[in-house]
Amino acid sequence: MTSKEKYEDHRRKWDRDEYERLAAERIQEELDAQEKAKQKQPPVKRELLRQRDYRVDLESKLGKSVVITKNTPSSQTGGYYCNVCDCVVKDSINFLDHINGKKHQRNLGMSMRVERSSLDQVKKRFEVNKKKLEEKKKDYDIEQRMKELREEEEKLKEYRKEKRKERKRKLEEDNDSKSQQDSELASIMGFSGFGSSKK
User: Which residues fall in a compositionally biased region of kind Basic and acidic residues (predicted)?
Assistant: First the structure.
């Protein structure tokens, strides 16, 4: 080999030791990543499922017409808009299914698990329900009393109406008897009437 051929060798030369070191580092990183994946991450702690403290509005848009253009934001298009999940649901049943569903609850930060009730909580709940029943009874009693008062008022109105009719009848009878007395007096005095030919 001549020196001229030696310099004309334009093929790329590789540093084997460098690339072996890089390959070993990459293999080590992959092994570390696999070990991290195998180690269980502590699960995300979510709140327990709880009752809604607001009323779901299903009737506000009922029977209303809305003009929708291509520039209308998705929250104002037809259907029910969920601002938590940023989605539109077309009817009320699916909207209720959505807000009670896993995806929506997860976006709210709640798991689908319910808190286990203790005996004291159950007893308190029974007491609250009992009080509500008693209040309902009172409300019912109030309704019943209102109904009775209305009936009494109607009876009183009927009674007054009858009284008025009776007074009117008495007045008419008095007027009739008075007119009979006047006609008798007129006949005694010789007046027979105002130009009538009847006797």
Answer: 169-181
Which SS3 state, helix, strand or coil, does residue 82 take?
strand
H or E stretch covering 17: helix 16-38
Q: What is the DSSP string of the chain?
A: --HHHHHH-------HHHHHHHHHHHHHHHHHHHHHHHSPPPPP--EEE---SS----STTTT------TTS-GGGSSSEEETTTTEEESSHHHHHHHHTSHHHHHHHTEEEEEPPPPHHHHHHHHHHHHHHHHHHHHHHHHHHHHHHHHHHHHHHHHHHHHHHHHHHHHHHHHHHHHHHHHHHHHHHHT---SS----
For residue 11, pLDDT beyond 70: yes
Residue 176 and residue 184: Cα distance in Å, rounded? 12
What is the per-residue pLDDT for 193? 56
pLDDT digits (tens, 9 = 90+) for 47-76: 787 888 888 888 888 888 888 888 888 778
Q: How far is residue 57's CA from residue 93's CA, in Å, rounded to a whole number?
A: 12
Other beta carbons within 10 angstroms of residue 15's beta carbon come to 8
> pLDDT of 120-154, one tens digit each?
999 999 999 999 988 887 777 777 888 888 999 99
